[in-house]
Amino acid sequence: MAETGAAGAVTAQARDRRWHALAICLVAGFMTLLDVSIVNVALPSMQQGLDAPPIALAWIVSGYALTFGLVLVPAGRLGDDRGRGRMFVIALLAFTVASALAGFAQNALWLVIARLLQGAAAGMLNPQVLGLMQQLFHGRDRGRAFGLFGAVVGLSTAIGPLLGGVILQFAGNENGWRWVFFVNLPIGAIALVYALRVLPRDGRAERPHNLDLVGVVLLGAGLLCLLLPLVEHSESPWYLLAAAPVLLALFVAWEHWCRMRGHAPLVDLRLLRIGSYSFGTMLGLLYFGGFTSIFFVLAVYFQRGLGYSPLEAGLAMTPFAVGSAVSSAVSGRIVYRMGRTLVLIGLVGALAGLLATDVLLGMHFGRLAGLVSALPLLVAGVGSGMVISPNQTVTLSEVDTAQGGTAAGVQQTAQRIGTALGTATASGLFFGALESGGYDEAISSGLVVSVCFVAAALVLGIAERLVVMRRAR
């Protein structure tokens, strides 16, 4: 009887430890994803404080996204082989140090380099977050965990402009941008100490693997040629896009050769034979192409077109963040029963909200546009929360836990590609329409991109349902 009680106490303690570890994962994910969007509203402050040229400002934003995307897959593989807890701590420490370097920057070049390092650290950290969640949680608990992570994704992306606006409001324009980075320091330091206490200890891998360096180079070069023209479309030579498919094809051929020879490839391409994984990864790419481009065009429209302050612009986008956070947490509890059907419902809601936002903002409400668009943005946010975390849960549901970090790295790389593609397309159409028709026409053109990407994700989701139904028959 005493032994049974002791075993029950150990099990309860282990369960508590999992949720403590999840809290650290959520904090780390929030920090890294927040830094994608929070910097946008601080760019005028950086330009004033550092006398930064436009090209430097562009790299402060795009450099983070670029290095973030480049290291995801190798970092996920290292976590799978060398220990996710160990890699998590190293990456979190690197991100905190890079944030300090950015905050103390004395010139534009210093800040650009710090942002490149910060992006690389974020890319190292995120596959460990998802890999640890997949390792620690199963069944309904995994759905709840991914639901909370989805809330963090939606909240961090949408609330970034608001939080940046609040910081600048209190810290002032000239040096307020420094506190956008300094806010990471106490959070990172506390998270590091707590992570060392609650993260699971890394055991030795069943068989040691050497990192596939040829695969790393081929994949990195292919992604660089693909992402660089997208994140820097006004500066980078577009012929790099022609080289990207060649390098990625060589990567696929090399990975196949490695596996056939009994070596450990960087990515086991048999992952793509898992229908739920391949469909979900592609759906995530399309959805993030629409999801993240929303905030770029709305931030520019509210601030430059309507004269909103950074704080007012952030408040105007808050309904999306609130809707996304709440529905993500709820969706995590029911995705175990509904599966990808829940994702389809969310895509319909997100599409309806975005279409309504596009129509209303095209009706010339002036400075009342933020108030008028609040309800449709709330609907879009609720739909978004039903897409991100449930899709994450279903996509990784059939993946072997031993490959969790690598699978998460590939999935998040697809999301980064979608983000870059959507933002590049939306910004191109937005500024093209701005030259000919003003801000009202520009916002309508920019939001059309979001609508098209979300609609494409919905079509893909329906196609997957039809395939599954056909196989069932």
Entry keywords:
globular, 83% helix, mainly alpha, single chain, 0% strand, disordered N terminus, 473 residues
Notes on the structure:
- This protein has helices at residues 2-37, 43-50, 54-82, 84-103, 108-136, 139-171, 176-182, 184-198, 213-231, 240-260, 275-305, 310-338, 340-361, 369-372, 374-396, 404-437, 439-472.
- 83% of the residues lie in helices and 0% in strands.
- The chain is mainly alpha-helical.
- It is globular and about 60 Å long.
- The chain is built from 17 helices and no strands.
- Mean pLDDT is 84; it is low at 1-10.
- Helix 1 packs across helix 6 and helix 11 (275-305) packs antiparallel against helix 12 (310-338).
TL;DR?
By secondary structure, the protein is mainly α. The protein has helices at 2-37, 43-50, 54-82, 84-103, 108-136, 139-171, 176-182, 184-198, 213-231, 240-260, 275-305, 310-338, 340-361, 369-372, 374-396, 404-437, 439-472. Helix 11 (275-305) runs antiparallel to helix 15.
